[in-house]
Amino acid sequence: MSAKTLYDKLWDAHVVRQEEDGTALIYIDRQLLHEVTSPQAFEGLRMANRKPWRIDTNLATPDHNVPTTDLTGGVASIEDAVSRIQVETLGMNTREFGITEFAMGDVRQGIVHVVGPEEGATLPGMTVVCGDSHTATHGALGALAHGIGTSEVEHVLATQCLIQKKMKNMLVKVDGKLQPGVGPKDVVLAIIGEIGTAGGNGHAIEFGGQVFRDMSVEGRMTVCNMAIEAGARVGLVAVDEKTIDYVEGRPFAPNADQWEAAKQAWQDLKSDDNAVFDKVVEIDGSKIEPQVSWGTSPEMVLDVNGTVPNPAKESDPVKAGGIERALEYMGLKADMSVKDIPVDFVFIGSCTNSRIEDFRAAAEVLKGKKVSDKVEQALAVPGSGLVKLQAEKEGLDKIFTEAGFEWRNPGCSMCLAMNADKLPTGKHCASTSNRNFEGRQGAGGRTHLVSPEMAAAAAVAGHFVDVRDYL
Amino acid sequence: MDKFLKMTAIVAPMDRSNVDTDAIIPKQFLKSIKRSGFGPNLFDEWRYEDVGEPDADNSGRPLRKEFVLNQPRYQGAKILLARENFGCGSSREHAPWALKDYGFDVVIAPSFADIFFNNCFKNGILPIVLDEAIVDALFNEVHAEEGYQLTVDLENTQIVKPDGEMVTFEVDSFRRHCLLNGLDDIGLTLQHEADIKAYEEKTKQTAPWLFAG
Ligand code: SF4
C-alpha cells in the first residue's frame, strides 16, 4: 500500500461513497453549532419537514453575539434586539430538535472552537465541521476539521454527511527551536507572511517539524486556527502523546471501557514517513521573530523590529496599490518603524488566543505592571466559562485587573464586534484575534494581529514593543 | 432551486483583488435569521456614505457615486467581473445570498476562495474561473463599452462576447448537473441512505466511541 499523509488517512476513513468524478460523500462525526450560521439551516430543515440524522453528534453554544459584561440577566439582557433574537433562536432550535446546548449562563458556554476541544467533543480521527471558517482549529488534535456554509450545516444535520472533493496535501515544516518570547501565534503569522493568504488555497495544510512537536496542544490550536488565513480550510498536526494526554478524561472523551481501543486507533494518525505532499514549505523556526501585522490582510505582517513597507519600492503596481490603500486605512506612514505605531486598544481573546495558556503567557508579561495611560481600553476575554474559572483559580484575573485590564465573560467579543465590544473608528488595536480586515473589529477600526505576550507588552508601553525586552 | 441554463446580462467590473466576505456583506447583517433580503446591503461599506444597519430602510441612504454598482451604466448587471481570490475570509453564506439577492447569477474571476466558491453553487450562483489574461481583457472591454453584455451558457460551458467571440470555461460536472437541474443537495444525498447506514454499522465496530452518545 502506498504511503499516506495524515489527511489521506482521515479522508479515506470517512468516505461513505465515492463518485467517479472525484466527489465523495464524507461522514461527519461532530458538528458544532453557534447562533450566527445555524438559524437558516434549522429553518431549511423545518421547511423540508426533515429531522436531524443523529442528534448526539451535534453540540451548540452561542458565542458571536453574547455580551461579555454581566451575564446574570441571561439572554434577555442582550440589548441589541437582532443579536438577542439570534441567541434566542439557537435556544429554540436546539430545544425543538433535542440538541445539547451550552447556553448563556452555563459555565461550559464559550467560543465554539474553544469549547469543542475543552469538552473532548472534538477527538483525534474525527471529522469535525462547524458553520465557521476557524473550525480548522480542531485539526490540532489530529481531526479533519473545516468550516462550512449554512447550506452545508443543514446538509450535515439532515444526512450526517457532506458532499466533498478531496483537497491537495501541503506540508508546512518548521524545524529548529523557537526563541524565547516567540510563540505559536508568531509562528503562524510568519507562515502567512511567507506563503500569503492564498498560499494554501485548495490544500489541507499539515504543520510538521520540530517546532510543532515541541508545541503544546493549545499552541497547535492557535496555529491550526489560522490555517484559513493562509487560504487552507484544513490545518492538521499529527497525533502524539501530548494529544492523547490532552484528551484523556474530558467529558465527551471515550469512556474507560473504550479508552484503550481509542488510544490504539489514534496511534496511526500521522503521515507515513515517505508520504508525498503536493506542496512543501520549509521555514527555519529559530529565525522567527515576534510578529505584528501592519495592514488589512493577515499576510501584511512584519517582524516587530521591522519597518512598514513603502509602495514606491514595490514594482508590481497592483501590490503597490494594495500597500497604499492599506497604509491609508491604517493611518500609517511608509517606512515608519513598527515600534512607533501607537496602541489605543488592546484585545486579548478570540478562538485564536483565549485558552488558559494564552492568559498565563500574557499575565507573565503583565505581572506587577500597569497598562499605559495612552491605552483607552484593554480587554481580556476568556474563550469559555471554564477557561475563565481556571484563570481565576490561578489568580490570573487579579494580574489583569490590577494592571488595568477589564476581565470579561466568554465570547467572541472584539474579534468581530458583533456584540457591544467595538473598536472605534481610527483607533489602533493590539489584538490576539485572527483577522485584520477593514472594519473587522468595528467600522474604521485598525487591527494589529499579535500574540498574547506581545499584546500585553504593547498595553504596558502604549505602542508596539519587542516582548523579549519585557521578559 | 431554480434551474440555471443560459443567460445574457450586463457585466459589472469589481476591479480589486482579495475582495473579502466582510466587504461583500458587513458583519452587522449576519445577525439576521433569514435567508433573503441582503441585496440592498451588498458591498454596504463601499456603496453607501453612512454605516448600514440590519432591518433598516436603505432607500434614502447617501450613495458613494463613484462606486461601480452605483454607476448608471451598470444598473441591472447580473454578472460580476472580479479579480483574484474573490470571496476570501469567513465562511458566511450571507455573501452569496447577498450577491444573489442583488441579482448576480454569475461571478467571473481568475481565482476564488474555496468556501465562497462552494457556497456559490449551493445558492444558484455560477462562479467561473478564467485565465488572468482573459479576465484582464474582459475588464478592458467592460470599461470601454457602455452596456457591455456577456452570454453565459452553462449547458455548453461557454461565454459569448458581444462580438461573437467564445470563451470556454470549466465547471465540475456534478455542480453543473445540479445547477442545470435545480437539484437540492440534501435530496440527492438521502438517495444514498443505505450507504450511510452501512458506513455507520461498520464504524460502530471499529470506533464505537463515536457512537457512545
Ligand atoms: S472568536 Fe472571532 S474568529 Fe473565532 S469564532 Fe468568534 S468571531 Fe470567529
Notes on the structure:
The complex is a heterodimer of chains A (471) and B (213). With 471 residues, chain A is of the alpha/beta class. Chain A has 15 helices and 19 strands. Chain A has helices at residues 6-12, 39-47, 81-97, 112-119, 150-159, 184-195, 210-214, 217-225, 241-247, 256-266, 317-330, 356-366, 385-393, 396-403, 452-461, and strands spanning 15-18, 23-27, 30-33, 58-60, 100-101, 127-130, 144-147, 161-165, 168-175, 203-208, 234-236, 279-284, 291-293, 301-303, 345-348, 377-380, 406-407, 428-431, 446-449. In chain A, the strands form five sheets. Chain A has a five-stranded parallel β-sheet with strand order 5-4-3-6-7, with helices on both faces. In chain A, strand 15 (345-348), helix 12 (356-366) and strand 16 form a beta-alpha-beta unit. In chain A, helix 2 crosses helix 5 (150-159) and helix 12 (356-366) crosses helix 14. The model of chain A has no long low-confidence stretch (mean pLDDT 96). Chain B is α/β, with parallel strands linked by helices. Chain B folds into two domains: 6-182, Aconitase, domain 4; 184-213, no CATH class. Helices cover 32% and strands 15% of the residues of chain B. Chain B has a seven-stranded mixed β-sheet with strand order 4-3-2-1-5-6-7. In chain B, strand 2, helix 3 and strand 3 (106-109) form a beta-alpha-beta unit. The longest helix of chain B is centred in the C-terminal third of the chain and has 14 residues, at 193-206. The mean pLDDT of chain B is 93. The structure holds iron/sulfur cluster. The site of iron/sulfur cluster has 13 residues of chain A, from loops.
